[in-house]
Amino acid sequence: MSDLKQELKEKIIEQLNLEDVSVAEIGDTDQLFGEGLGLDSIDALELIVMLDKDYGIKLADPKEGRKIFESVDTMATYIEANRA
Amino acid sequence: MKRIYINSVGSVSAQKTYENSNFLEEVEYYNANVIKVIDPNYKDYIPPAAARRMAKGIKMSTVSSRTALEEAGLENVDAIMVGTGLGCIGDSAKFVGDIIDNNEQFLTPTRFIQSSHNTVSGQIALAIGCKGYNFTYVNASVSFESCLIDAILQLRNDEAKNILVGGVDEIADHHVKSHQLIQHIKQEAVAAKDLLSSNTKGCVSAEGSNFFVLSDKEQASTYAELVAVKTFNTLTKERLETVAEHFLSDQGLSASEIDMVILGNNGDVDFDGYYNILSEGLFSNTSQLYYKHLSGEFDTAASFGFWLGSKILKSQSIPEAVKLNSIAPDSMKTVLLYNQYRGENHTLILLRRC
Predict the structure, then answer these.
(1) Does the distance separating the beta carbons of B52 and A18 come in below 8 Å?
(2) Which of B37, B83, B121, B218 has a beta carbon 3.0–4.6 Å from B143's, enabling a disulfide?
(3) Smallest Cα distance from B52 to chain A, Å
(4) What does the pLDDT read at residue A84?
């Protein structure tokens, strides 16, 4: 699980071009949207594509994204439970 | 007829032009066949959250357009016109590459957003809150000049008072590779000072972004008057001198009244002959300048020539690095710019000191 979290942090930085953010600066429970990393709706779309492409998970209901993308922790838990 | 003034300039180029107070005091002489811009510190101009999703062309243009707006003392304009040959070609190529690599699946939004040519003019409008006319000309190597023509028409017809006009193109790997294959870009590195004697096919490819505020009123920051612009998609060498003479006579001028001619020579052995027609003929006794050994070639490189002419007329000085011959002008009042790319898309621009 900790490997997956590390992997997710690296992917988030790379896919979303967070040039000034390092893996160490993203806490497992930090909010990704809003006050945390400050991601926005376009980033949410990028993350949905990443889930599909890299982990074979299609989000049937976009509203699910609110909870899944809350933090690296919630993302990792969801991926572990649903990956193909 | 109503006069049009170039009230400010902003430039990001292969030279250190982003500092507007500089005028080629320090010159970078490259030895290359592809040259990139000297980047300003983009973080000084763009918040990191916004910059992370910006293509190179947008970053360059954010800096150069902001520089031009600040120098003109404007927070907003009536219209924004951007010329670009290839738009944000880097992200366009990546987007198309993703389509192929992922079998038309998993397309991400950011690259799609950047893929349209009008992203630059849109981003500038969003940044300054401009809800006015917003247009992007994608007319190959007359893209920038097409903006100038539109701006002249709108200013002379009282449809606008201040217009932000710019030309931008960025370097992208795929574009460079494919254009090297067809010898539109030189196969070999060329020293800047040897560009015109390289005697090989193709150009030194580059990128850049040059913006200007054109206005119907002169002000303290004014660089020059934009008198006339004309474009010709096709033109033979035999007709070039006649066309140039007609262009000047339409403005009540003859070739002998031009103080300086700024030529767009790019060192392509197949096409620099057009410039030689003028430099060895009509303007053989005129001060001749060139700039593509400093800026490189791109679809909107003429905007760097426009920047150069504007700077010369305002500063009343000619940098040593751009002199093509040793003739010193008697005065620096009237500048003619001539450009073409691969024998097509010829443009004549006339500038006058205010």
Answers:
(1) yes
(2) B83
(3) 5
(4) 66
C-alpha span between B272 and B196 (Å, rounded)? 8
Least confident residue range of B104-108, B189-193, B325-329: B104-108
Is the predicted pLDDT of residue B256 greater than 70, yes or no?
yes
In the predicted structure, residue B200 carries a pLDDT above the cut 80: yes
Residue B253, pLDDT above cutoff 90: yes
What is the average per-residue pLDDT within A44-48?
A: 91
Which residues of chain A make contact with B107, given a CB cutoff of 8 A? 49
3-state secondary structure of B304: helix
Closest Cα in chain B to A49: B106
Mutate to test the interface with A, among B39, B41, B46, B53 (most CBs of A within 10 A): B53
| Inter-chain CB proximity A20 and B48 less than 8 Å | yes
The one-letter amino acid at A54: D
Quote the tokens at residue A66.
């609110």
Domain count, chain A: 1
Domain, as residue range, for A21: 2-82
Cα angle B73-B78-B83, degrees, rounded to a multiple of 5: 95
CA distance B23 to B274: 28
What integer is the mean pLDDT of A37-53?
Answer: 90
Contacts of B113 in chain A (CB under 8 A): 42
Distance CA B94, CA B231 (A): 33
A51-55, B49-53, B193-197, B334-338: range with lowest mean pLDDT? B49-53
| Cβ contacts of B90 on chain A, cutoff 8 Å | none
CB B7 within 8 A of CB B151: no
- Please give, rounded to a whole number of angstroms, the shortest distance from the CA of B109 to a CA of chain A: 7
Taking the CA of residue A47 and the nearest CA in chain B, the distance in Å comes to: 9
> Mean pLDDT score of chain B, rounded to an integer?
96
B71: number of Cβ within 10 Å: 17
Domains of chain B are 5-215 (3.40.47.10), 228-352 (3.40.47.10)
Q: Do B151 and B79 touch, CB atoms closer than 8 A?
A: yes
